[in-house]
């Protein structure tokens, strides 16, 4: 059973809604197939056959005479959107040995060309309907299924009809020509190349080891280079004919439209679909096989040596997967399994926090691709002594299997589950149709049902008498019973371990270790010290957005309040403070990274990380932390009942910060393990170094080395972070479902009780960052990963700030025009990159630092092609305006994205950050939609001429160590020409 959620329209009537007056781009009127009468469908809730789980009545189920099944429902989140999923019951496990990768290749080819779409027309066609490629229009292939996804914004009867027409042609009659095979195979190989390297090798070897003897061990979704390059028209057509049949298809539609209309469109466009020949039964995926020593013994083990990769150990207790009757009793058992795992994982985390032999460890039970029901144990050792780390984790597990947990431990996890299920029910109206549709796809993958949040909570509440120590103990023991246990150990050092040693360590007797059992005595907020003497609200006034109020407390702290009843159960809190990166010194890089990882964990007052967990048990509370160039942020999603205590935790971090050393030491270990792994791929190097280069090599933005981390101390951590928590302005934002008067009182007791904060030093408040100078000569960086991988970046500096904000927003349109052209040339025509992209960055808090950035992963020899193509597109945008159609393919999706985003208060929270000190952000809200969606071809050309001129960019190439960067575009390859 997978939870689903009942939904309803939740639009917010704010200034943006009034601006949504332009009609969507007209779609070509679709004509139904000439012979496609609408056949009758059986009204049968086929998903619930064999289940006594109460049916979610929001869904209407049906089955056509040709065997195609469907599920439709009305859903108004976001308003106007309809989410369509076409799921084909065929993935990588359905491939023959000579077809590895065909399911995924076919996913690509379906988008290439089909009955109603010419070559390369799919992306533009859906963009004209307002759908953004990649987020609104996409597809995924997995081991057991392939799912095509369309989130159609601003849906009208015409655009819905057109969408179903196009999708029917894609599924039933794709153009699987030899030319299209030869075009799409290089794109798939580019995707495979992007994923190559240590991560892929580890994943494939792990899959081969844990599922040895099963089809899953031999079927990577991406396929093999050999089978893909050998693919041809006949072989691909045979795979499509075998599996793309109506009885293998399910269409799920959830959105802001009449369910009868959506069902009718399914019948009209898919009712005449007929399979070719006799249906082929699904292949057997196989079962985990017991080793020769008998059931439950240690089977295959493998040690993988990959330089620079952190140590990681995984073992799995495997059981055969069997289709279950998804009943209430079955789900009650799953809930007890979840309790057992939560108790174990909390103990493992407590052991790690206390300074153990491992950084992290976790237990998770999962059903894998209808191939195994498995319990996985993962461990990240802190050092070379992996045997001690494994033994310590196994000791905690042995204790969990030896004696029952206390009722207090159970009650703690039940409280956590209870708040999660209650929150889901409270927010059921807010669940988007896309998630509801995806829930059914996931349920189909494991052959189970979905349930409404009311049903889930009801089953949970009825199960509470079953949550006894004896029951949890029995389920814990069952989680670690299986037909075979297999494992993989990943290490950067050869000779550290071998398979025999690993097998012996897994089989060795272990002593139960109960030291990780936690104190379950509850902690109450009522027993905590007050922040200080409560302050008072001295100013409370509406803003130019009538629903949003600005208040100022007597100590100068300001807040924005947006209470709305349209988002039941959803409340976001954000605290913006200080100066961000401007607050640090050049030598603080290690402490900056440690702050991101450990500032929250170091505690408040008398509460360390464990106490913070205990005090929030059964509450919806959070404590996220983020660092921007010009400010810091605490953030949380909470609910009205917990708001006062959430505000207390945030305010206490300023008033009485705790400086526990253990989280800092743990963060140091994690940072050191992560650092070397960044060098194993071009994307890792980009992650490590790009921000440093974008900020003119400012040392504050440099990723600290392990040696710098070794030199960092808890005392130094406090010295850096204590003044940051003490100085500078604070802005609090409360947006969502809360009581205004109660929130004011809570603010007065918490943030109002803080002392008046000193102003930031002028040098800090006005500090700027250096920028990298334009140059045609690329900065060359090296990675130690796969020799076939490289990455390239081109950045055109722009500007920033509120004065030129309209221009910054218009640059979003220009960057997406650029992105569409880059994707078309590098991917669709040349096959050199799988997902090249261009994005726009425009800081509002400072007048510099903006940029248009183009980047891609590709082969080392293609780096000059990327630079040449990017330069060529930039030159074209300067030399000539885009066509009206090309422009509409960007502005219509942008308009729809904004329309959807503006239905949630969190959107306005992001737009209005800093507005208490910069009121221009309120007026800028009213011009957001026209700024980002209304322009002209001439305006785009002028903007390109201002920023995309030759000599105004700088570039980065990340190539394999030991290779030289090619300086010429290979002969015979020109940008925009198909190979």
UniProtKB/TrEMBL annotation:
The Peptidase M16 N-terminal domain extends over 81-193
GO MF annotation: an example? metallopeptidase activity
What are the residue boundaries of the Peptidase M16 C-terminal domain, all occurrences included?
Answer: 234-415, 731-890
Q: What are the record keywords, sorted?
A: Hydrolase, Metalloprotease, Protease, Signal, Zinc
**Pfam families in the record:** Peptidase_M16, Peptidase_M16_C
Classify the source by domain of life.
Answer: Bacteria
In its keyword annotation, does this UniProt entry include Transmembrane? no
Tell me, which GO biological process terms does this entry list? proteolysis
As given in the record, the signal peptide range reads 1-27
PANTHER family (alphabetical): NARDILYSIN, PROTEIN YHJJ
Report the family membership: Belongs to the peptidase M16 family.
Q: What name goes with this protein?
A: Zinc protease
Q: Which organism is it from?
A: Novosphingobium kunmingense
Upper classification of the organism:
Bacteria, Pseudomonadati, Pseudomonadota, Alphaproteobacteria, Sphingomonadales
């Amino acid at each position: 059973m997978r939870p689903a959620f009942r939904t309803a329209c939740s639009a917010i009537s704010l200034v943006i809604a009034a601006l949504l007056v332009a009609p969507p781009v007209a779609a070509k009127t679709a004509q139904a197939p000439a012979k496609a009468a609408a056949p009758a469908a059986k009204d049968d809730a086929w998903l619930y056959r064999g289940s006594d789980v109460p049916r979610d009545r929001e869904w209407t189920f049906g089955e056509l005479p040709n065997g195609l099944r469907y599920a439709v429902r009305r859903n108004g989140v976001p308003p106007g959107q309809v989410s369509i999923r076409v799921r084909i019951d065929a993935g990588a496990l359905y491939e023959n040995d000579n077809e590895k990768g065909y399911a995924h290749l076919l996913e690509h080819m379906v988008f290439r060309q089909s009955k109603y779409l010419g070559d390369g027309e799919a992306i533009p066609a859906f963009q004209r309907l307002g759908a953004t490629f990649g987020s609104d229009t996409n597809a995924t292939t997995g081991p057991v299924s392939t799912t095509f996804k369309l989130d159609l914004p601003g849906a009208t009867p015409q655009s819905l009809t057109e969408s179903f027409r196009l999708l029917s042609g894609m599924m039933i009659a794709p153009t699987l020509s030899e030319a299209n095979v030869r075009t799409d195979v290089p794109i798939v190989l580019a995707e495979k190349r992007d994923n190559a390297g240590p991560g892929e090798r580890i994943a494939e070897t792990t899959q081969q080891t844990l599922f040895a003897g099963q089809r899953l061990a031999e079927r990577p979704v991406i396929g093999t280079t050999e089978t893909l390059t050998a693919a041809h028209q006949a072989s691909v057509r045979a795979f499509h004919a075998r599996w793309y049949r109506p009885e293998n298809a399910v269409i799920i539609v959830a959105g802001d439209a009449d369910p009868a209309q959506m069902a009718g469109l399914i019948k009209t466009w898919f009712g005449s679909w007929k399979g070719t020949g006799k249906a082929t039964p699904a292949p057997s995926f196989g079962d985990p096989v017991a080793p020769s020593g008998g059931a439950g013994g240690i089977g295959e083990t493998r040690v993988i040596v990959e330089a620079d990769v952190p140590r990681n150990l995984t073992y799995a207790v495997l059981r055969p997967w069997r289709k279950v009757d998804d009943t209430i009793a079955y789900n009650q058992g799953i809930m007890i399994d979840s309790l057992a795992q939560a108790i174990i994982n909390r103990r493992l985390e407590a052991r790690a926090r206390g300074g153990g032999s491992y950084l992290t460890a976790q237990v998770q039970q999962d059903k894998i691709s209808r191939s195994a029901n498995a319990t996985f144990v993962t461990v990240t050792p802190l050092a070379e002594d992996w045997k001690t780390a494994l033994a310590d984790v196994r000791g905690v597990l042995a204790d969990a299997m030896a004696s029952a947990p206390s009722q207090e431990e159970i009650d703690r996890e039940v409280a956590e589950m209870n708040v999660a299920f209650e929150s889901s029910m409270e927010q059921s109206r807010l669940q988007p149709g896309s998630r509801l549709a995806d829930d059914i796809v996931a349920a189909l993958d494991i052959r189970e049902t979905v349930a409404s949040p009311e049903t889930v909570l009801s089953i949970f509440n009825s199960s509470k008498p079953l949550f006894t120590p004896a029951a949890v103990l029995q389920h814990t023991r069952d989680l670690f019973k299986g037909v075979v246990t297999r494992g993989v150990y990943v290490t950067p050092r050869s000779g550290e371990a071998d398979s025999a040693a690993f097998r012996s360590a897994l089989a060795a007797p272990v002593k139960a270790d109960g030291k990780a059992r936690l104190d379950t005595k509850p902690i109450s907020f009522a027993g905590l010290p007050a922040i200080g003497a409560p302050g008072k609200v001295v100013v409370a006034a509406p803003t130019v957005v009538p629903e949003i109020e600005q208040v100022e407390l007597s100590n100068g702290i300001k807040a924005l309040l947006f209470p709305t009843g349209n988002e039941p159960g959803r409340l976001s809190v954000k605290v913006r403070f200080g100066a961000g990166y401007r607050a640090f010194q050049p030598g603080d890089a290690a402490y900056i990274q440690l702050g991101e990882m450990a500032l929250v964990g170091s505690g408040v007052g008398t509460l360390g990380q464990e106490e913070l967990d205990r005090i929030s048990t059964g509450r919806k509370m959070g404590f996220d932390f983020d660092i921007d160039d010009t400010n810091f942020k605490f953030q949380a999603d909470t609910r009205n009942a917990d708001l006062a205590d959430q505000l207390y935790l945030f305010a206490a971090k300023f008033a009485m910060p705790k400086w526990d050393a253990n989280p800092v030491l743990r963060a140091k270990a994690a940072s050191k393990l992560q650092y070397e792994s960044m060098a194993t791929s071009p994307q890792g190097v980009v992650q490590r170094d790009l921000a440093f280069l974008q900020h003119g090599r400012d040392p504050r933005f440099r990723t600290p080395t392990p040696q710098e981390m070794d030199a960092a101390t808890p005392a130094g951590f406090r010295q850096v972070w204590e003044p940051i928590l003490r100085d500078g302005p604070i802005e609090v934002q409360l947006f969502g479902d809360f009581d205004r008067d109660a929130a004011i009182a809570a603010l007065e007791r918490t943030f109002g009780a803080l002392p008046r904060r000193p102003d930031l030093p002028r040098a800090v408040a006005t500090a700027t960052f250096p920028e990298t100078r334009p140059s045609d000569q690329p900065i060359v960086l090296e990675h130690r990963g796969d020799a076939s991988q490289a990455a390239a970046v081109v950045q055109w500096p722009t500007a920033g700030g509120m004065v030129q904000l309209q221009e910054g927003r218009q640059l979003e349109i220009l960057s997406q025009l650029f992105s569409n052209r880059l994707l078309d040339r590098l991917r669709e025509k040349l096959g050199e990159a799988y997902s090249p992209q261009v994005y726009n960055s425009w800081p509002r808090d400072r007048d510099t630092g903006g940029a248009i950035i183009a980047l891609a992963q590709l082969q080392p020899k293609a780096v000059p092609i990327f630079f040449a193509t990017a330069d060529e597109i930039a030159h074209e945008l300067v030399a000539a305006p885009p066509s009206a159609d090309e422009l509409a393919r960007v502005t219509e999706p942008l308009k729809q994205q904004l329309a959807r985003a503006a239905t949630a208060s969190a959107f306005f929270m992001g737009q209005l950050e800093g507005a208490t000190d910069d009121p221009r952000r309120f007026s800028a809200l009213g011009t957001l939609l026209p700024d980002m969606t209304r322009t002209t071809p001439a305006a785009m050309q002028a903007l390109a001429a201002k920023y995309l001129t030759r000599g105004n960019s700088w570039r980065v190439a990340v190539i394999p160590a030991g290779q030289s960067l090619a300086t010429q575009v290979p002969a015979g390859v020109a940008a925009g020409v198909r190979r």
